[in-house]
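Action item from last meeting closed. Structure (423 res):
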């Protein structure tokens, strides 16, 4: 890697340069593309279809239960794995072992899901896969803080964000068209992310960490370190709140999108699988364009907050389309506008998060970014449960979900405004 020699501590970060920088950017984009494709394809299409086949009369409640239990374990795994990666000492670096090993474990479990014939066996294997993938994700995310200078993180975040948002769309497209070939679909996602992560580690060698000072784990102080005081670090707290609220809104709709097309719009099962894939294609174009343009402008102007705020507001506008037009026309408008807003938010959000981390001489970026990632995982517990409760209260009227989602994503914009350390 064309970069400076690895320092003995965290006081002199190693910024990757030259061809190695480009390679790392593109590798991160590909890895996050495939990981988000896996999440969207499996959570948005494959699992809802499989659950509907196993328990048609209880599909909504079982899906909410799956999301809730999965997210409890994911929420715990993410910051703990991030903190342990900070302490990892090996010739391959701090992050690479987590990326390689966790991706293999997750992919084996994911393929096993395709063979399950009961809801609870499906649940157990999927939770195991989710724990592994969530142990891998903070290691990859932290490489942005580890290896890229702050002034260039908007562009990096834009490129990675474009990959992530494109992956969310591509995964839905692939899963929608392969929904009838369950084993093939699960196997394709599992093999792709495992191969990509192994190639990532081989192509982007981290500086060895085995010469860095050892950090023994004292379990009491270790777990106490996950509490980051909002009073001492208000910008971190506001960034957490912004991320939490926008994902509460976004996930409430995304988790039930297949059922929305069937029960709110009135499509048949086969038609809904095709429709969710075709909608995702429109979203893909809007996501990629919005992510790349926003990331480039953010670095050019050295501004983060306006893009995150505007992205949140645009997402709120998207939620109104199915309310005003409960038809495929409204869903097409939703698909396009949500792509623009979510692409803008997601591309800059990652750069903003790396710039509100508490300053630490110990190298706790993995742990702190893991804590921020729980702002995505916790809504995966709460938002499907909230949606199921709203459906029960309002006689399966999906408009209640869209209204709640609109309020949450607008609230996200308000949470960004008090942040002072980032413009």
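Sequence:
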């Amino acid at each position: 890697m064309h970069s400076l020699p690895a320092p003995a501590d965290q006081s002199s970060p190693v910024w990757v340069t030259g061809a190695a920088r480009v390679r790392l950017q593109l590798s991160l984009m590909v890895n996050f593309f495939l990981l988000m494709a896996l999440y969207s394809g499996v959570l948005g299409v494959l699992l809802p279809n499989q659950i509907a086949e196993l328990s048609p009369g209880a599909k909504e409640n079982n899906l909410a239960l799956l999301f809730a239990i999965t997210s409890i374990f994911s929420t715990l795994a993410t910051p703990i794995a991030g903190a342990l990666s900070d302490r990892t000492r090996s010739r391959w670096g701090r992050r690479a072992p987590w990326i390689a090993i966790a991706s293999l474990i997750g992919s084996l479990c994911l393929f096993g899901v395709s063979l399950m014939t009961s809801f609870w066996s499906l649940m157990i294997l999927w939770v195991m896969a989710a724990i592994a993938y969530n142990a891998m994700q903070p290691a990859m995310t932290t490489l942005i803080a580890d290896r890229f200078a702050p002034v260039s993180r908007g562009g990096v975040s834009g490129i990675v964000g474009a990959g992530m948002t494109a992956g969310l769309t591509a995964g839905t497209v692939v899963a929608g068209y392969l929904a009838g070939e369950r084993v093939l679909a699960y196997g394709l996602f599992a093999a792709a992310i495992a191969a990509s992560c192994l190639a990532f580690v081989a192509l982007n060698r981290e500086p060895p960490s085995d010469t860095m000072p050892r950090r023994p784990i004292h379990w009491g102080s270790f777990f106490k370190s996950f509490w980051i005081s909002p009073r001492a670090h208000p910008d971190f707290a506001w960034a957490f709140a912004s991320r939490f609220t926008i994902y509460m809104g976004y996930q409430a709709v995304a988790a039930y999108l297949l059922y929305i097309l069937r029960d709110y719009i009135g499509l048949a099962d086969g038609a809904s699988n095709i429709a969710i894939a075709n909608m995702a294609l429109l979203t893909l174009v809007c996501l990629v364009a919005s992510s790349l343009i926003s990331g480039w402008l953010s670095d050019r102007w050295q501004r983060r907050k306006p893009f995150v705020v505007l992205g949140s507001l645009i997402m709120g506008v998207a939620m109104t389309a199915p309310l005003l037009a409960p038809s495929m026309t409204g869903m097409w408008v939703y698909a396009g506008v949500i792509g623009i807003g979510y692409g803008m938010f997601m591309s800059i959000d990652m750069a903003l998060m790396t710039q509100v981390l508490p300053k630490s001489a110990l190298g706790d970026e993995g742990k702190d970014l893991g804590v921020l990632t729980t702002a995505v995982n916790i809504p995966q517990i709460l938002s499907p449960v909230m949606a199921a409760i709203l459906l029960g209260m309002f006689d399966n009227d999906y408009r209640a979900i869209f209204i709640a989602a609109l309020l949450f994503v607008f609230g996200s914009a308000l949470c960004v405004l008090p942040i002072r350390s980032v413009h």
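Note appended to the action item: Residues 181 and 361 are 50 Å apart (CA to CA).
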